[in-house]
Amino acid sequence: MAGPIQRESAARDVVGEVRGALERAIVKGGVARRIAEERLAPALSLVETVTAQLDKAREAERPLLTALSASQEDARGLLIGINEELWMAVGSPSSDAALSLLFPGGAGYYTEGSADEQADRMDLLAQLLSAGAHPKLSLEKARTAAKSVGAAAARLRAAVDAGRLPRARVSLLERASELVSQSAQNELALLRRRLKAEGVSDADIDALYYGHEAQGATNAEERAIPEGGLKLA
Predict the structure, then answer these.
(1) Which of 34, 75, 102, 217 is the right S-S partner for 221, CB 3.0 to 4.6 Å?
(2) Phi and psi at residue 198, in whole multiples of 5°?
(3) How many domains does the chain have?
(4) Cβ 177 vs Cβ 51: under 8 Å
(5) Inside any domain, residue 228
(6) Is there a domain that residue 57 lies in?
(7) Structural domain boundaries, residue 209
(8) What is the percentage of the chain residues whose pLDDT exceeds 90?
(9) Neighbours of 140 (CB within 10 A)
């Protein structure tokens, strides 16, 4: 299955082919122009509108993603440091059940997974530290560590929340971009049938599709049409 980058690249290729066919039909004029403007122009306009919205949404999301990544890295560094500090504070034991309760498997327990999960786990760690979960750790030291962890969790959650709606908008527009590109590709496939029904010759149709007289299949014809679509005749 193609990934997002491959799907978007294919969608943009389709847009280029639709735009090229429309421009050549406009130059040719007559029935070719009339039908192409009727079938291709609305589809192309919709694709361009969605693409512009997607580009704008990604631009707005970019600094938020950068801020989120920075918050995650800051939290990761803090957790590794606190884990090491507390381990030393209780005598650097080779094995410690109470310390394992605080850091099951080490700091990695709190730094793995999504940013949402990381913030939630950090809050739990702050609660355990505040409650004095380790008998060899002074309550003052534990609560100081808890305060640092809780503050870092709050910063991380704020970064997550700030990017939540922009991420959802990008995801929605990416899906919309795929769908409107598929629709434009289908219109390009149907255009040949409409032109033939109006008496336009195969040679003239090929000139609209490929830019010159017929020379066989092109990428537009060879690429698979989405399920439910039509291949060019």
Answers:
(1) 217
(2) -90, 5
(3) 1
(4) yes
(5) no
(6) yes
(7) 4-222
(8) 61
(9) 8
